[in-house]
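Support case: iron/sulfur cluster complex. Customer-provided input:
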Amino acid sequence: MKRIHCQTEYCVNCHLCALACIAAHSESQDLLKAMTREDPKPVARMWVEEKYPVSMAVQCHHCQDPKCVESCIAGALYKNEQGVVLLHEEMCVGCGTCQAACPYGAPKLITLDGRRRALKCDLCQGREVPACVEACPNLALTYEEGR
Ligand code: SF4
Ligand code: SF4
Ligand code: SF4
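Agent response - structure generated as follows:
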């Protein structure tokens, strides 16, 4: 299956990938409308790790043997038939075990509407290419098979 990869030598720490992720996970699919009119505001499922002078986008790698799925105490994480690791958000109890078990620390923990919960990259289900990959101005992000 295809996965997202970040080439750190091309990442310029612009965060456009994270903004595209927010827009792709909003009701309106429009960043400005999402941030000004939607409640709750959509949140990115990935982030940019910054250790000056290096930066890199961090997304789920959709591991073949996902430690997050194995560790989830609520059975909220699963791998679909295409190999994409997904989260039943309504089942998540926000314990953070998945983040601790993930070798990349990929799941994000947030508090939304007073409830702590995890969020993770879903490879933008329904889109051919994930929004972050499309948005990267320096081609630091690739979406390809077999890495
Ligand atoms: S959009 Fe590309 S260059 Fe900008 S922070 Fe994200 S990965 Fe790095
Ligand atoms: S959240 Fe982490 S452990 Fe789970 S599939 Fe993604 S990269 Fe692998
Ligand atoms: S935070 Fe949610 S998804 Fe992660 S292990 Fe706990 S219940 Fe499962």
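The mean pLDDT is 96.

Case will auto-close in a few days if no follow-up is received.
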